[in-house]
Amino acid sequence: MAESITYVRSQFLEPEKAPMSDSSAIGWVRKNLFASWKDSILSLVALAAILYFIPGLLNWLFVSAVWTGADRTACLTVDQGGQLPAGWNGACWAYVGDRFVQFMFGSYPRDELWRPLLVVVMFVGLLIPFLIPKVPRKGLNALLLLIVLPVVAFFLLLGGVFGLRHVETSLWGGLMVTLIISFVGIVVSLPAGILLALGRRSTMPVLKTACVVFIELIRGVPLITVLFMASVLLPLFLEPGNNIDKFLRALIGVSIFASAYMAEVIRGGLQAIPKGQYEAADALGLNYFHKMTFVVLPQAIKLVIPGIVNTFIGMFKDTSLVTIISMYDLLGIVKASFGDSAWITPVTPLTGLIFAGFVFWIFCFGMSRYSAFVERRLDKGHKR
Amino acid sequence: MALADARTGSGEPPKVSLLYNPALRSTVYQVVTIIVIVSAVWYAWNNVVQNLARANMSAGFGFLNSRAGFDVAQSLIAYSSDSTYFRALQVGLINTLVVAAAGIVTATIVGLLVGIGRLSHNWLIARLCTIYVEIFRNIPPLLVIFFWYLGVLALLPSIRTIFQHVKDNPDAIFFISNRGIYMPAPVFGEGFGVVLAAFLIGVVAAIAFTVWANARQRATGIRPPVLWINLGLIVLFPLLVFVVMGSPLSLDYAVPGSFNMNGGMVIGPEFLALYLALSLYTASFIAEIVRAGIRGVSKGQSEASYALGLRPGQATRLVVLPQALRIIIPPLTSQYLNLIKNSSLAVAVGYADLVAVGGTILNQSGKSIEIISIWMLIYVSISLITSLFMNWFNAKMALVER
Q: Any transmembrane segments, and where (chain B) (predicted)?
């Protein structure tokens, strides 16, 4: 009887093949590079482009590059007056090596270089513990880094007191200037931005209007016009016969610009704080100052740390614009060195710009990584 | 009543010392603010008057009508060194708008592609797009401009090489040199207006047809072949009219002159450097915005649209993209504004934009207050118009809730 029941299978099917493992190397390649025919075409095109460009790039940057030499002849081909074979093309790192001190410190007197170096050591020594969350005494550290250090650095770099030789700001240059301008911008813009943001959210119409007009006016125009304003109009606005330092003018311009942007970032944080927090602070009988410093601002600023760091990164990149009002920050001094007769070669501009770009990139990338780290760390509190 | 009694013993508000009266305090603060602002402005104005008097200069915008006396390399409107300062500023404004518009279009396209590429399942493409974003986001735009201008475009073949090239290949019409890209310029003949009209009619007809096709799809479920008919209306129809009118378009070729190429159309290296740098720099930011926008739309949305039977293209176009746009538009607006403001970096390579022309006038005439006010006025207006337009677009795209 049992044989006549046709719908019961009497023999097993062949087992299906195991699905393609995507943990093996081939499986990974199939899944991530050749999942469909469109993917395959894209992967092959990308691969071809990489194979075409990367060897040439590496060759230009490292293999064919000139690493040592005293002047331009080291980086010139035979028909240009040097000794390299005709048709040579590569980076001229000898030029960057020769000009390195200038790129870092500008024309700062060479026998006084210990002063900026000391400032760098102090800065790094205070910054690193400040950035590591586990190190205690953040308050003292912040005080030293943000208030004491700028004052000490000011006297140390400018001189003229305690028997230090006076070094005019026109001699400053290079990465030093880039860092000073962005650091001052950061130190000024944070408190100024908080004040402007609070002013913008104030209920007093006059204060509010003044803050809105300032913020929107500055944010509506390019940094160049603000820098022109600081460098051309500021001397007109002050007492006749004043001779306000050019470097100081640039600092003022950058600080004004950064404050307006910082104000908007902080306003975003203030708006994100629930109304209950304000009301709770009022109910506790705190006055405006205490309400803001103890309840609202700590939460608001924590919320917008990524935005604040983004503003810092933007400011760091924007300091390169002081090149246009003929100051010598890193980019300005690299660009100025292209016209230096000792190193005029066809490859000098490209080499110098790649070097400057690399330095800027390291700083900005480091800041953005650090901001991502802080963001992750602060996020943990909200995860259940 | 009982509550009021318990609090103060009467219905009147509690008596507060004048020092802690909020209304009085706020008035005092505001009066102090006004006094500070007014005295600062008065102080500055007083100094300006004295400083100008010492330098024997006068204030006012009358100088705008005097002769400029300098040449501008690239100008879309008639301009010579005999034109007025006002005309020069117009040239600068137009050049600013041209480079900003071109930059915005390119940055949006590149940013969109790179942003989608970063989300691709293809490992290689995603990595390449990440590298692009991380490189360009972290380098100053000014450096990128110099990179193109001094590092790349300056190394292109010189004009002598081009002359030689023309001698060898008399048929060549398109040249790339370190003085820019030369190409034939279109010369519009008589009757080209008819072709233009035909094109406009084609566009209007295509829009009308699309509206009709959508209505028909809703009514019957059958979608007419919109793409092909629209292509025909927009491309083939004007082309047909063009041929019928006897091809009223000729080309003006660039030919070697004594020192430079004559005729044709040239795109200068200044424009190219600025345009490439602004587009590539801003594209890296737009890519991140696009990526955040697409990731902000939950996966359930695309799965739901597949369940409804939409094809992947339709799901992206009709379901995912409209929702992603809501997240994308506000930060995209600020990137567009940044690009417009960054176009002022033109002054670094000498592309005659508003700031470069204004800077030249400032150096010539010394009218710093006037020039800087003009700059600020124009840039603030451009910013306001752009944000108004984007706010309108944003409101149109925003979620319509019940």
A: 27-45, 93-117, 138-159, 192-215, 227-251, 271-294, 345-362, 374-393
Separation CA A278–CA A198 (nearest Å): 13
Last residue of a domain, which of A14, A45, A60?
Answer: A60
DSSP string, A16-69: PPPPPPSSSHHHHHHHHT-SSHHHHHHHHHHHHHHHHHHHHHHIIIIIS-B---
Question: Would A280 be classed as within a structural domain?
Answer: yes
ipTM score assigned to the predicted complex: 0.85
What whole-number distance in Å separates Cα of residue B364 and Cα of residue A232?
14
* Residue of B330, B352, B332, B381 lying closest to B104 (CA atoms): B332
Cβ neighbours of A291 (radius 10 Å): 18
**What is the number of alpha carbons within 13 Å of residue A38 lying toward its C-beta?**
3
Q: Is the pLDDT of residue B13 over 70?
A: no
- The angle at the Cα of A382, spanning A376 to A384, to the nearest 5 degrees, equals 115
User: A43 contacts in B (CB within 8 Å)?
Assistant: 122, 124-125
User: Which residues are registered as beta bridge partners of B67?
Assistant: B84
Of the candidates A230, A225, A223, the residue with the CA atom closest to the CA atom of residue A320: A223
Nearest Cβ partner of B347 from A39, A219, A324? Answer: A324
Residues in A closer than 8 angstroms to B141, CB to CB, are: 317
Find where tokens 């802080």 sit: A374
From B122, B154, B368, residue closest to A39, measured CB to CB: B122
Dump pLDDT digits (tens) for A156-205: 888 777 777 888 888 888 899 999 999 999 889 999 999 999 998 888 88
The domain containing residue A50 runs over which residues?
Answer: 27-60
In Å, how far is B348's CA from the nearest CA of chain A? 6
CB nearest A217 (choices: B344, B347, B380): B380
Span B159-176, pLDDT tens digits: 777 777 777 777 777 777
pLDDT average, residue stretch B345-349? 88
Rounded alpha-carbon distances, angstroms, from residue B216 to A45, B202, B204, B207? 42, 20, 18, 14
Domains contained in chain A, number: 2
Q: Which of A12, A42, A60 is the last residue of a domain?
A: A60
Cα–Cα distance, B2 to B73 (Å, whole number): 84
Do the Cβ atoms of A202 and B33 come closer than 8 Å?
no
